[in-house]
Each structure stands twice: as structure tokens, then as C-alpha cells.
Amino acid sequence: MQTNMNTLGIYIYLLDGRTGEGVPGARYTLTGEDGANQQQRSDSEGRLRFHLEMNAGYTLQEELPPAGYRANAHMYTLLINEEGVLIADGQEVQWMEIYYE
């Protein structure tokens, strides 16, 4: 989902660890190296959408857990490399999924 030559839109999927269904209502903040924040709440299908600049580092952290689920304290590191590949916590991934219990 390219938005321009230097920025890519990505989806992050929040899923129930038992059923695999999307988890709505979680609020996450994506913070860039420059300190700029993007905040999103997961939609009815458990999706978050953020825009990342290529070759810039980001952290992703939960600000508000979804109702009925435990909080996720992990701080994720994200990067879109020069080939447009998403790197999450040091691993190349085609998409990112976060599971809740």
C-alpha cells in the first residue's frame, strides 16, 4: 500500500490467540526516530494502519488494551528497509500479527 516513493502504509493485525479472530478496540502508538507519533485504534477486524517512511526506525507500543484482554507490554521495533520490506523486532516479515489471550 504505497502512498509515495518514501512512505509505505502497513497493516498490523491484532488477533485472539484462541480463535484467530480480529481484536477491536486496542490503541497503539507508533513513534518515529524524530519523536513524531501516530496513534491508531484497532478496527472491527483487529487492524491497525500506519504510514512508515523507508529507512526510518519506529517503536510500536500498546497504550490501551482491548476490552477483556491482558495488556501487551512489549515495545516492538519496526523499519521499512530500502527494498520496501518490513522488519519487525529484527526479523523480515510480510505482515505483522500480534496475538492476545
How does this structure look, described?
The protein has 101 residues and is mostly beta strands. The chain has one domain (2-100): Immunoglobulins (Immunoglobulin-like), CATH 2.60.40. It is built from no helices and ten strands. It has strands spanning 2-4, 7-16, 27-32, 37-41, 47-53, 57-64, 76-80, 86-88, 91-93, 96-100. A six-stranded antiparallel sheet has the order 4-3-6-7-8-9, with no helix packed on it. Strands 1, 2, 5 and 10 form a four-stranded mixed sheet that branches. Strand 7 (76-80) and strand 8 (86-88) form a beta hairpin. The N and C termini lie far apart (29 Å). The mean pLDDT is 92.
Secondary-structure topology with pairs:
Elements: E1 2-4, E2 7-16, E3 27-32, E4 37-41, E5 47-53, E6 57-64, E7 76-80, E8 86-88, E9 91-93, E10 96-100
Parallel strand pairs: 2-10
Antiparallel strand pairs: 1-2, 2-5, 3-4, 3-6, 6-7, 7-8, 8-9
| Count of runs of 4 or more consecutive helical residues | 0
Strand tally: 10
Secondary structural class: mainly beta
How many distinct folded domains?
1
The average pLDDT is 92
SSE string, helix = H, strand = E?
Answer: EEEEEEEEEE
Shape: globular
- What is the second-level CATH architecture? Sandwich
N-C termini distance: 29 Å
Uncertain regions spanning at least 5 consecutive residues: none
CATH class assignment: Mainly Beta
Quick tags:
Immunoglobulin-like, 54% strand, mainly beta, four-stranded mixed sheet, six-stranded antiparallel sheet
Brief summary:
The chain has strands at residues 2-4, 7-16, 27-32, 37-41, 47-53, 57-64, 76-80, 86-88, 91-93, 96-100.
